[in-house]
Amino acid sequence: MPAAALDDLYDYDPAYLADILKSVKTIAMVGASADKTKFSYGVLRVLHETGYDMIPVNPNPNLHDIRGIKVYHSLEEIDRPVDMVEVFRPKEELYAIAEKAVAIDAKVLWGQIGVYDDKAAALAEAAGLKVVMNRCPKIELFRPFWKPRLDLKI
């Protein structure tokens, strides 16, 4: 599906997204990477520096921390409440992650850009979770500050 079609399919009211980002405190990032060249590392860094309590989740048994933050190897290992599960994994894995997000009583399931699955969304919503797919919380967090400069010369 072309990117423009996905944007139309997963079009969210800006107030819905803003409400989620204002209300969540603890974010479990499934697919977090310690590789500074990976997009997930940059998103984790910005969200952490913005004040969110980030919980990196990565199954690699040799990975113990990212940016000094303890890494959990699964959602089930997390020892405190999670407000939002952010997914940096292939969309084919979203349904299984949605099941785990429901099981740990998360409040939000958020699929990163390119991560979407209507069945996973339906499962999460039926369990009372808010759902966002094919969006980046880092981008949405700063979107209200983006203002077009129409007075600039081309």
How would you sum up this structure, described in words?
With about 150 residues, the chain is α/β, with parallel strands linked by helices. The protein has one domain: NAD(P)-binding Rossmann-like Domain (Rossmann fold, 3-Layer(aba) Sandwich), CATH 3.40.50.720. It is built from six helices and seven strands. It is globular, with a radius of gyration of 16 Å.
Quick structural summary:
This protein is of the alpha/beta class and 154 residues long. It has helices spanning 3-9, 14-23, 39-50, 94-103, 118-126, 137-142; strands spanning 26-30, 53-57, 65-66, 69-70, 84-87, 108-111, 130-132. Helices cover 35% and strands 16% of the residues.
Question: Which terms summarize this structure?
Answer:
about 35% helix, 5-stranded parallel β-sheet, two-stranded antiparallel sheet, about 150 residues, alpha/beta
Instruction: Please state roughly what percent of the residues sit in beta strands, choosing from under 5%, 5-15%, 15-25%, 25-35%, 35-45% or over 45%.
Output: 15-25%
Radius of gyration: 16 Å
In one word, what is the shape? globular
Which architecture would the CATH scheme give at its second level?
A: 3-Layer(aba) Sandwich
Structural class: alpha/beta
SSE order, one letter for each helix or strand: HHEHEEEEHEHEH
CATH level-four homologous superfamily name: NAD(P)-binding Rossmann-like Domain
Here the CATH topology equals Rossmann fold
Mind summarizing the main beta sheet? 5 strands, parallel
Strand order of the largest sheet: 2-1-5-6-7
Helix content class: 25-40%
Cα separation of the termini: 32 Å
User: What low-confidence regions span 5 or more consecutive residues with pLDDT below 50?
Assistant: none
Number of domains: 1
Chain-averaged pLDDT: 91
Oligomer designation: single chain
What is the number of helical segments per DSSP (H or I, 4+ residues)?
6
Task: Please identify the top-level CATH class.
Answer: Alpha Beta
Number of strands: 7
